[in-house]
Specification:
Length: about 200
């Protein structure tokens, strides 16, 4: 593993466990065996490390979602929504440290004063909502999903529900696996086209 990648991996772990403000660059240097100067050679400062992690999250998720979508067979848009929910839950569990970091308050505080961070977060959340919007649009086209609500708004609602489940699991509030069936059924009831059922 390249030194830069090792630094990002260790920083993600530390930021997700301790928070941005409580993570010291000296601790990151000790964990990676890299001198602080090496860290600052690769990243201008601590904030630069943090922003790179956020950028990489989006860059990692999009190709993975495209690979997932390209393996689909002939399915209704409603079936594709269910698969998108499963994919999001899978990716959030697979990249738990990154999602833990994303669910902290700091990125949003930084976004208030840092246009680059705001741009990264907006692009990241647009990517997340797109995961749900595309199957909803397909479902509206094939008649399996109602078109009374614009697809983007429906996607935002579904995303909010699914991301809340991720937060519950990360904070050990609920057994998300036990609620999976109900989550899917709630989304189906909300989206289904009753005119064609």
């Amino acid at each position: 593993m390249k030194k830069k990648d090792a630094i990002l991996q260790a920083a993600t772990y530390l930021f997700s466990r301790k928070g941005y403000k409580d993570t010291a660059m000296g601790e990151l240097a000790k964990m990676t065996g890299a001198a602080e100067g090496t860290i600052f050679y690769h990243f201008k400062n601590k904030q630069g490390v943090f922003l790179t992690i956020l950028k990489n999250l989006k860059d990692d998720i999009l190709p993975e979602f495209e690979r997932y979508r390209n393996t689909e067979s002939e399915k209704t848009g409603m079936d594709m929504v269910e698969e998108a929910i499963s994919f999001y839950l899978y990716i959030a569990q697979n990249k738990e440290d990154l999602f833990a970091l994303l669910h902290q308050r700091y990125p949003y505080e930084l976004a208030e004063s840092n246009p680059e961070c705001r741009e990264i977060l907006e692009a990241l959340y647009n990517c997340f909502v797109d995961i749900f919007e595309k199957p909803i649009l397909n479902g509206q086209a094939d008649g399996s999903i109602n078109d009374d609500i614009p697809a983007r708004k429906s996607a935002l609602i579904v995303f909010s529900m699914v991301d809340s489940m991720v937060r519950f699991r990360m904070n050990n509030l609920y057994d998300v696996g036990a609620l999976y069936k109900e989550l899917i059924e709630s989304c189906r009831r909300m989206l289904e086209n009753r005119k064609h059922s």
